[in-house]
Write a structure and sequence with these properties.
By secondary structure, the chain is of the alpha/beta class. It has a domain of 89 residues: GMP Synthetase, Chain A, domain 3 (2-Layer Sandwich), CATH 3.30.300. The protein contains eleven helices and 20 strands. It has a twelve-stranded mixed β-sheet, sandwiched between helices. A four-stranded mixed β-sheet has the order 19-18-17-20, with helices on one face. The longest helix has 22 residues. The radius of gyration is 22 Å and the shape is globular. The two termini are 32 Å apart. The mean pLDDT is 90. The structure holds zinc ion.
Length: 443
């Protein structure tokens, strides 16, 4: 919505109204009695190990049966109808991309909601969910928000990678209000050094109690406070982060400067794993959300392999995420919750580019979205106003028009004055430990 023409060309009051109306529609769809009932049910799992185990086993068995009986990919395997998890093969994103239809249940009724993953290599994967999956996801998110002390009606700030105002706007308020949610929504794309204090002031003035943010966005504000030897001048309950990796060092810096605990959440659009940190800073694997296997890949790292519990339309079993965690020696947490603990998540590398006003732009995931024939991308920046987009493409689909969309998407995030050009390559270079970086900025 935020990049649409009608939104961008409306006065501020109308933009606030549009944001608020959108939120009320989403709220009505997601936060209904079904969600509240489910939330109530999963809250009972937190401190009761036998209940947690039986809940999770039921969900796992149900998912395996659904796959065996109704999903073509699994039906063709001809497994015994009571097969246990270890009889199922591992799958990865390429299996799903190549055989999309085979992974969709043939007994599905109702609406199917499509969404794209934000692959770090810029090759999004389409995942379909039913409405129940969306509602359940919200319930798990709501449970984690409760860990962070949030209660209905609290005033929130939202700095989560949305371009709340157009990039062409260089002055004035870089935020809008979602009235029915008691929320101030701030742009992640206007955070140039000169603007940062106005973000802090706007949140203080609104009386924000909980901040929901991308790690890169809240870290930018924390560093601004640190550079100026300042602390957030008002009381906050908590900060909730997700969608990017957060190092312990950065987490501590944010906590120090904002004077509250950061509750970090790891999840992915495939919905095969969720990990949430608690008030004691421990990362808990939410074993009632999905079934997680951790496979030793050396160097102390373990790959997350997950089986989703909440999407009957596209049950993914033993899905290799490519994400890694480090195990913990601890078997229990002072918070008392019975979910297993891991030490930390070996996250995606926090890459960024420098935009036309000297601002760091971390949110690059959306740039490849909507570009057809794109297999992988990497952004390179060696000069202040120039970006090279290296692209691996399917040459039959990726034509001049797609090239223009890719350039336009890049400029929309970094500034119209940027010189953006595309280089077609055979493959994207990987780092020493096999990761693909989104962007390499040498400035
Ligand atoms: Zn804990």
């Amino acid at each position: 919505m935020f990049t649409s023409f009608p939104y961008n060309h409306s006065p501020v009051f109308i933009q606030n109204l549009l944001i608020s109306l959108r939120s009320i529609i989403r709220k009505t769809l997601r936060e209904n009695n079904v969600q509240l009932k489910f939330l109530n049910e999963i809250q009972k799992n937190e401190f009761d190990i036998s209940r947690l185990i039986s809940f999770s086993n039921n969900r796992l068995n149900y998912t395996l049966a659904q796959a065996n009986n109704n999903v073509p990919f699994y039906k063709h395997l001809n497994l015994d109808s009571r097969s246990k998890l270890h009889s199922f093969p591992f799958i990865n994103k390429f299996d799903i991309r190549d055989r999309m239809e085979d992974f969709l249940a043939d007994n599905h009724k109702g609406i199917a909601i499509s969404g794209a993953t934000s692959g770090t290599t810029g090759a999004p994967l389409i995942i379909k969910q039913n409405m129940e999956s969306v509602i359940r996801e919200q319930a798990f998110v709501a449970r984690h928000l409760k860990w962070a002390g949030f209660v209905q009606g609290d005033k929130r700030a939202w700095i989560r990678g949305d371009m709340i105002v157009p990039l062409e706007q260089k002055n004035g308020a870089f935020w809008r209000y979602s009235w029915f949610e008691n929320m101030i929504m701030l742009s992640s794309f206007h955070m140039s050094p000169n603007n940062l204090q106005s973000y802090i002031d706007a949140m203080v003035e609104y009386g924000v109690q909980v901040i929901q943010a991308y790690p890169s966005s809240i870290l930018t504000l924390a560093k601004h406070l640190e550079t100026n030897d300042l602390y957030y001048p008002s009381d906050l309950k908590s900060i909730v982060t997700s969608s990017e990796s957060l190092s312990l060092e950065d987490k501590q810096l944010i906590e120090r400067r904002f004077g509250c605990t950061v509750y970090d959440w790891y999840g992915l659009f495939e919905r095969v794993a969720a990990i949430g940190s608690c008030e004691h800073g421990r990362y808990h694997i939410l074993t009632d959300y999905s079934h997680v296997e951790l496979e030793d890949v050396g160097d102390g790292r373990h790959e997350i392999i997950g089986t989703n519990f909440n999407n009957e339309l596209q049950p993914l079993i033993r899905y290799r995420t490519g994400d890694h965690v480090y195990l913990s020696d601890e078997t229990s947490c002072p918070c008392g919750r019975v979910f297993p603990i891991i030490d930390r998540i070996d996250g995606r590398i926090g890459d960024y580019l420098i935009g036309e006003d000297g601002q760091k732009v971390h949110i690059l995931n959306h740039i490849p979205k909507g570009v057809k024939g794109l297999i992988a991308t990497q952004f390179k920046q060696d000069h202040p106003n120039q970006i090279e987009v290296q692209a691996v493409v399917n040459a039959q689909v990726f034509d001049k028009q797609q090239e223009r969309i890719l350039i336009d998407n890049t400029k929309a995030r970094l500034g119209r004055s940027m010189d953006v050009f595309i280089t077609i390559v055979d493959k994207i270079q990987k780092t020493k430990n096999g990761k693909t970086r989104q962007a390499i900025c040498t400035l």
